[in-house]
Amino acid sequence: MFDELIDTPFNPTPELTHHNTHKLISYEQLQTAIANLADTINRDYLPILSDTVNGTKEGKSEIVLLCVMNGAMVFCSHLLPLLKFPLQFDSLQVSRYGDKDKGGELRWLKEPDIDLSNKHVLVVDDLIDEGASLMEVVRYCNSKNVRSTKVAVLLDKKTSRRLPDAIIPDYSGLDIPDEFIFGFGIDYKNFYRNLLDIYSVKNS
């Protein structure tokens, strides 16, 4: 779809061409990675719902999946049907990009509506880059008296810009190089979230 689009007058981002973009991850590779993530998450979270966790009586446990919008919405829509335990779903939204391609000041656009107190929270995000946004999200969750906070990301960008105190995701699907990416829910200047594959803008 993207390869066809950039050859037409309808291309909303003419600066992207066949010469400076390439397909980084196919839809099939993404599906395999998400299935593997779901298997690992199921293995870890199913025991939480039992009467005893690590030998300690916890009583009734509730799990909340928090989707970090808008980038993780497609990832979440593929992951959710593969999770084999009861969960509550909510979303939050923070932004460091807007229509820019470099991170800026973090802004909270939406907080979760669900009361997170005394619940196990699984934060689902599209990727970890520098790590600033996820640090703030985890800090927010932990401030709500949760039982636990874990993070699942589809992509782990291997970058030298990662903050020294950045969190390490509990679940990570695929490692990617330090390149600007878009597709599969991730945007480029607010376009291309609808692409099934993930593309990369080549470093100049």
Your description of this structure?
The chain has 204 residues and is an alpha/beta fold. Strands 6-5-4-7-8-9 form a six-stranded mixed β-sheet, sandwiched between helices. It has a three-stranded antiparallel β-sheet with strand order 1-11-10. It has a two-stranded antiparallel sheet with strand order 2-3. It has helices at 2-5, 27-45, 73-79, 132-142, and strands spanning 21-25, 52-53, 56-57, 63-69, 88-95, 107-110, 120-128, 148-157, 171-176, 180-182, 198-201. The protein is globular and about 55 Å long. 29% of the residues are buried. α3 (73-79) links the parallel β4 and β5.
Question: What descriptive keywords fit this protein?
Answer:
six-stranded mixed sheet; three-stranded antiparallel sheet; 204 residues; alpha/beta; 4 helices
**Unreliable stretches:** none
Task: Bin the strand percentage.
Answer: 25-35%
User: Mind summarizing the main beta sheet?
Assistant: 6 strands, mixed
How much helicity do the residues have? Answer: 10-25%
Mean pLDDT: 90
Secondary structure tally: strands: 11
The 3D shape can be described as globular
Structural class: alpha/beta
Helix and strand element order: HEHEEEHEEEHEEEE
The neighbouring-strand order within the major sheet is 6-5-4-7-8-9
Distance from N terminus to C terminus (CA atoms, Å) equals 24 Å
Number of helices: 4
Question: What is the radius of gyration computed over CA atoms, rounded to a whole number of angstroms?
Answer: 18 Å
